[in-house]
């Protein structure tokens, strides 16, 4: 159920059917090498949320396309919102969603830079009494730790989406320890499944996605540095962190989309079953809130 496609008279029934769960796809508009579009993260977040809604009842709020991307000021097309604007915008979305009857809000994030920001934002929400609970999830499907081990144990047939040649691509990606993380094999396959019209495989090789090593002393330190976004920007100056994903396919993308959607559906089921622990905590401490 997509929020924007509902009629006003349907909301009460949708709130009941979804047990008060509304999900917000949360992405980013930024460069992903030269083979993927700027809106990759937003397209992925929305497609995953929509697919999850086919597995478990939830209302899908219109996608928030702009995310936390302060360091790509040098790249055309990047859209950055100031933190105070972003905070106010997301808080306003949450209060409006709650006003319409939903008391469980789940951000479905698919941009790495949003993870730490979203954690801080969700924590800040609780400085006031709220009549809703809000959480976030980052449902990344893992080629190396999730898909490849299953192929080794059970064979490629355990994933009906794949052909043997796809298993070979995944095997090469994992065993040769290809670089991943941004515009990589996972994202390229997803976009081939979601928006193939926006993918330009012929542009692979035009920019380098390998780390330059300039931040190795930071990243390999045992000091566990925080606020490391600028270090990523130094290490991957082309806003592309990947070995060129040759062999990426729609079939692998469909599998990744299914696995990501299943993770979101699982998160929603848990939120429905146990979300009361959050609302109970808020009610218990309501007398101590100044508002």
List the helices and strands and how they pair.
Blueprint: H1 11-17, E1 21-26, H2 40-53, E2 59-60, H3 83-99, E3 104-109, H4 112-125, E4 133-137, H5 143-154, H6 164-175, H7 185-194, H8 216-219, H9 229-235, H10 250-274, H11 276-284
Parallel strand pairs: 1-2, 1-3, 3-4
Helix pairs in contact: 2-7, 2-10, 5-6, 7-10
What would the keywords be for this entry?
11 helices, alpha/beta, 291 residues, four-stranded parallel sheet, 2 domains, Rossmann fold, globular
Q: What would you say this structure looks like, in words?
A:
40% of the residues are buried. The radius of gyration is 20 Å and the shape is globular. It has 291 residues and is an alpha/beta fold. Helix content is 45%, strand content 7%. It folds into two domains: 3-140 and 261-288, Rossmann fold (3-Layer(aba) Sandwich); 143-258, no CATH class.
Strand order of the largest sheet: 2-1-3-4
Query: Which architecture of the largest domain would the CATH scheme give at its second level?
Result: 3-Layer(aba) Sandwich
Helix content bin: 40-55%
Query: CATH superfamily membership of the largest domain, which one?
Result: Creatininase
The count of helical stretches stands at 11
Give a concise summary:
This protein has helices at 11-17, 40-53, 83-99, 112-125, 143-154, 164-175, 185-194, 216-219, 229-235, 250-274, 276-284; strands at 21-26, 59-60, 104-109, 133-137. With 291 residues, it is of the alpha/beta class.
């Amino acid at each position: 159920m997509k929020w924007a496609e509902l009629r006003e008279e349907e909301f009460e029934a949708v709130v009941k059917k979804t047990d008060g769960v509304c999900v917000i796809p949360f992405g980013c508009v930024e460069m992903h090498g030269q083979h993927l579009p700027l809106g990759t993260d937003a397209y992925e977040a929305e497609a995953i949320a929509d697919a999850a809604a086919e597995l478990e009842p939830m209302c899908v709020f219109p996608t928030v396309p702009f995310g936390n991307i302060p360091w790509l000021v040098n790249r055309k097309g990047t859209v950055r919102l100031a933190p105070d604007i972003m905070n106010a915008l997301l808080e306003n979305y949450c209060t409006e969603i709650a006003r319409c009857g939903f008391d469980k809000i789940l951000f479905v994030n698919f941009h790495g830079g949003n993870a730490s920001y979203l954690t801080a934002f969700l924590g800040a929400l609780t400085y006031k009494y709220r009549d809703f609970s809000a959480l976030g999830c980052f449902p990344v499907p893992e080629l190396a730790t999730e898909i490849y081990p299953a192929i080794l144990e059970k064979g490629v047939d355990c994933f009906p989406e794949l052909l043997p040649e796809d298993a070979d691509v995944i095997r090469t990606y994992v065993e040769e320890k290809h670089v991943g993380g941004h515009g990589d094999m996972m994202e390229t396959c997803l976009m081939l499944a979601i928006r193939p019209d926006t993918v330009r495989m012929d542009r692979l090789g035009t920019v380098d996605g390998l780390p330059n090593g300039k931040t190795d002393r930071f990243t390999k330190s045992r000091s566990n540095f925080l606020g490391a976004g600028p270090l990523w920007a130094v290490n991957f100056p082309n806003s592309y962190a990947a070995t060129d994903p040759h062999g990426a396919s729609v079939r692998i993308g469909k599998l990744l989309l299914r696995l990501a959607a299943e993770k979101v559906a699982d998160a929603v089921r848990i939120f429905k079953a146990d979300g009361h622990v959050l609302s109970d905590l808020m009610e218990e401490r309501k007398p101590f809130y100044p508002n």
